[in-house]
């Protein structure tokens, strides 16, 4: 068929109504659809180059799931709730609570905050459903984050939801047991693996640090078999002390490219494909099957994972490399803890600041640069000025935190790593504005020192949290002010 004839045929087909196409363009053949392959043919030989390509892609989108999987393996080692230097540990399906702000030496989860008292625990819902206790927090802000293997939240527990005190049950995708009397609500996860991370607001005062202790004792989680309908208590000040981990500057490594081929089958089995992911899963599983039989294919997949780690995942640690771009070089995201198939954002968030709350619970704003687009660095001094009435509009609280180049706190003379609602001594200017002074040394003007946010040595980042945000934050009409370098 020559080119003119082909154009005539295409034009004729284009003019046919859809009903005509469905009735005439494909001959009736009962066996035709059945003959179409539904997945890769695992009997065929594949090249190492193809295996490397699949490994590189799979490592990127499965990185958050491997992160969660290895955290579960870590918690599975513990037989009792304990403290290890700045870290807390608990057996699977339990949690451990701090009794004050997180220790600045913590290196388990990047971008912690010193506005709340944290808890942490890994859940294994294939082992047992988990009961989560909610005490009476009164007027205190609180929220429980519970995420699945994909780092997506699957519960709604917090002050913004009007949650009542009681017992809440977490179950896995295949659980079919009876719900005991006394359970207020059941939340079903789409995976068996996940993490529980309560957050309870605390003022930066000695009085509130004492007042919060009684309610913290009832923030407890345990396997369903231990449920008896009574509110259990735990004195978090009396935990066994284990040797502290070696000091580190960077976050604990949870994902290892050299282990991907061995770990990925279990990870994917725990997180069945979302709608539209079936072909992606089939492709990866087919190459994993080949890798199990051929060391060269396994090595090729591993090389792809290593390339992905260096070229794709590592750069996403920098906030400026992802997110919705806002005025003054700030950025944000809007699908936190509900990433679905947004693989890029999910991996970027997991790499840079894993375990973010849902957007109606907390809104996050990230900053690596000053108003001129220059990297924030302790060689300079900066101001962040909120005009009168223009601090983040929230029902809960807000804060401006500072992190070093590794997204962690570094000890400073006044033990301050964030400023915001928790600080009762911040000074407003005569016009009602609030200026935060971000610099390594205290301001020479003593009247400014109450608003000083000490900068760590070298490059650093700023981070605004708006807990239980109001409309101005949720609709995007409010964004943070510029970070201005002071000459």
Q: Oligomer, anyone?
A: single chain
Helix content: 25-40%
> Rg to the nearest angstrom?
26 Å
Broad shape = globular
Q: In the CATH classification, which architecture of the largest domain applies?
A: Sandwich
CATH fourth-tier homologous superfamily of the largest domain: Domain of unknown function DUF1214, C-terminal domain
> Based on DSSP secondary structure assignment, what is the total number of beta strands?
22
Secondary-structure class = alpha+beta
List the helices and strands and how they pair.
Blueprint: H1 3-15, H2 18-24, H3 32-35, H4 48-75, E1 82-84, E2 87-89, E3 96-97, E4 116-124, E5 130-134, E6 142-148, E7 157-158, E8 166-171, E9 183-188, E10 193-201, H5 206-211, H6 213-216, E11 221-223, E12 241-242, H7 260-270, H8 278-293, H9 295-313, E13 324-325, E14 331-332, H10 343-353, E15 362-367, E16 381-386, E17 394-404, E18 418-420, E19 434-439, E20 452-454, E21 460-469, H11 471-474, E22 483-486
Parallel strand pairs: 1-12, 8-9, 19-20
Antiparallel strand pairs: 1-2, 3-4, 4-10, 5-8, 5-11, 6-7, 6-10, 13-14, 15-21, 16-19, 16-22, 17-18, 17-21
Organism: Povalibacter uvarum
InterPro entries: DUF1214, DUF1214_C_sf, DUF1254, DUF1254_sf
Domain DUF1254: 93-223
């Amino acid at each position: 068929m020559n080119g003119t004839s082909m154009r005539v045929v295409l034009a004729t087909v284009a003019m046919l109504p859809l009903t005509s196409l469905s009735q005439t363009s494909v001959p009736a053949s009962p066996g035709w659809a059945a003959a179409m392959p539904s997945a890769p043919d695992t009997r065929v030989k594949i090249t190492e180059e193809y295996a490397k390509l699949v490994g590189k892609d799979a490592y990127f989108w499965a990185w958050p799931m491997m992160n969660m999987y290895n955290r579960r393996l870590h918690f599975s080692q513990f037989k009792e709730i304990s403290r290890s230097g700045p870290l807390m540990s608990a057996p699977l399906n339990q949690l451990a609570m701090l009794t004050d702000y997180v220790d600045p030496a913590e290196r388990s989860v990047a971008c912690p905050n010193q506005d709340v008292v944290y808890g942490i625990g890994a859940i294994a819902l294939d082992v047992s459903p988990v009961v989560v206790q909610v005490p009476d927090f009164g007027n205190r802000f609180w929220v429980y984050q519970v995420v699945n293997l994909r780092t997506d939240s699957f519960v709604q527990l917090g002050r913004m939801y009007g949650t009542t005190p009681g017992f809440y049950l977490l179950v896995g995708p295949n659980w079919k047991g009876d719900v005991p009397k006394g359970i207020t609500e059941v939340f079903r996860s789409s995976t068996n693996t996940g993490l529980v991370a309560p957050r309870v607001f605390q003022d930066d005062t000695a009085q509130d640090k004492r007042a919060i202790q009684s309610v913290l004792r009832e923030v407890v989680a345990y396997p369903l078999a231990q449920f008896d309908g009574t509110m259990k208590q735990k004195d978090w000040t009396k935990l066994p002390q284990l040797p502290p981990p070696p000091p580190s500057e960077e976050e604990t490594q949870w994902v290892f490219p050299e282990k991907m081929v061995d770990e990925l089958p279990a990870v994917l089995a725990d997180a069945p494909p979302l709608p539209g992911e079936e072909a992606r899963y089939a492709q990866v599983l087919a190459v994993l099957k080949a890798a199990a039989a051929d060391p060269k294919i396994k090595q090729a997949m591993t090389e792809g994972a290593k390339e992905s780690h260096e070229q794709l995942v590592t750069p996403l640690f920098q906030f400026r490399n992802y997110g919705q771009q806002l005025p003054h070089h700030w950025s944000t995201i809007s699908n936190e803890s509900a990433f679905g198939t947004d693989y890029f954002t999910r991996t970027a968030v997991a790499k840079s600041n894993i375990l973010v709350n849902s957007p109606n619970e907390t809104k996050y704003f990230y900053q690596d640069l000053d108003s001129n687009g220059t990297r924030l660095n302790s060689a300079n001094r900066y101001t962040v000025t909120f005009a009168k009435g223009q601090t983040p509009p929230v029902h809960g609280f807000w804060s401006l935190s500072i992190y070093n180049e590794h997204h962690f706190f570094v000890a400073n003379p006044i033990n301050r790593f964030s400023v915001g609602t928790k600080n009762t001594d911040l000074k407003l200017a005569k016009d009602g504005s609030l200026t935060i002074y971000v610099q390594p040394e205290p301001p020479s003007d003593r009247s400014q020192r109450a608003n000083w946010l000490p900068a760590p040595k070298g490059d650093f980042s700023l981070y605004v949290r708006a807990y239980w945000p109001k409309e101005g934050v949720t609709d995007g009409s409010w964004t943070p002010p510029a970070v201005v370098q002071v000459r």
